[in-house]
Amino acid sequence: MAADGAPLSEEEVRDRVHLRHQNLADVRSLSLPGSYHKKITDLGDSLKNFICLKSLDLSRNALTTLEIKMFGRVKGTLCDAKMNTVELPGKPIQADHSSYRDAKNTC
């Protein structure tokens, strides 16, 4: 796991889920729940190559920011994926964009 506050890397994601498969486009679901000792605070660009994700569990983490555009449609890929589920139980969502309600349709 990255040092406290450091962005999560793709390699750390692979290690956490014991993923040795090279083609990340085959991955449809990731479960990255936090634990008492290990919590994700920043995803950085660690998920950028998981282009076909449909479900992502980030429960029990300590995320400080979350890029909504990361979960939008990825055009021009083999799967043209759109995220269906992002689990963030217990996390209040706060947008710093004045028209965040309209932004959900622009991803």
Automatic annotation (TrEMBL):
The keyword Coiled coil applies. SUPFAM superfamilies: L domain-like. Keywords: Coiled coil, Leucine-rich repeat, Repeat. It comes from the Eukaryota. PANTHER family: CENTROSOMAL PROTEIN OF 72 KDA (PTHR23311:SF7), HEAT SHOCK REGULATED 2 (PTHR23311). This is Uncharacterized protein.
